[in-house]
Specification:
mainly alpha; Heme Oxygenase, Chain A; globular; binds (4-amino-2-methylpyrimidin-5-yl)methyl dihydrogen phosphate
Length: 198
């Protein structure tokens, strides 16, 4: 099954992960600054974890998947610098402790280090496709959050997600629905955490 079909096979979970109240608040400008800043600090930490996961996946990846993974890795290093600039401008401490949702997601990534490469590719596609659809649903975004909405909705990011889908479809895992469900569940908990509910 092509990865793009996984969305419609788990519609309820997908809606929760991509049409969360946090995102409605980003669109309408009603998400409290404190909740947004919590998300920002925790997401910077997630991206640092994701960078390590992706580096390990690249090291194991078959030749045709290397280019998209390597390009994504460079983008992640740049994204971390972007997070650092934003945190400094907002007076946020990126060394703040990881909250349980962030620790839980890091543990999922660590388990995926031990899974086979096809499972890792489908997981990575799910991670990125979630952000593409989630932030696209928040377009154009309230002025104070617009920079973030733009970051995950530019054509270059959509192109990256399409490249990951092609890699995942070329090397399908035995149970794509299972890894998709695990990642989507972690994404829902992550939004809940920002809203103070996890
Ligand atoms: C992404 C992210 C997207 N930043 N945070 C979570 C919790 N899930 C997915 O990853 P990237 O590398 O920022 O595009």
């Amino acid at each position: 099954v092509p990865v793009d079909e996984l969305l419609s096979r788990s519609p309820d979970a997908w809606r929760e992960a991509t049409a969360h109240p946090f995102l409605t608040g980003v669109r309408e400008g009603t998400v409290p600054v404190a909740a947004f800043d919590t998300w920002l600090v925790q997401d910077a930490r997630f991206v640092a974890d994701l960078l390590r996961f992706q580096a390990r996946l690249l090291a194991r990846a078959p030749r045709p998947a290397q280019a998209v993974l390597a390009g994504g890795l460079v983008a992640l290093v740049e994204e971390l610098a972007w997070f650092e600039q934003l945190a400094a401008a907002r007076g946020l401490d990126l060394a703040a402790p990881a909250l349980p949702a962030t620790t839980g997601y890091a543990e999922l990534l660590a388990r995926l280090d031990d899974a086979d490469v096809p499972t890792g590719l489908t997981a990575l596609w799910t991670i990125e496709r979630t952000y593409l659809d989630a932030w696209s649903g928040a377009l154009p975004g309230a002025p104070q959050y617009r920079e973030f909405v733009e970051h995950w909705t530019v054509p270059g990011f959509a192109g990256y997600v399409a490249g990951l889908a092609a890699a995942a479809d070329a090397f399908p895992p035995a149970d794509p629905d299972a890894v998709f469900a695990e990642v989507v569940a972690a994404e829902i908990v992550f939004w809940d955490m920002a809203m103070g509910a996890a």
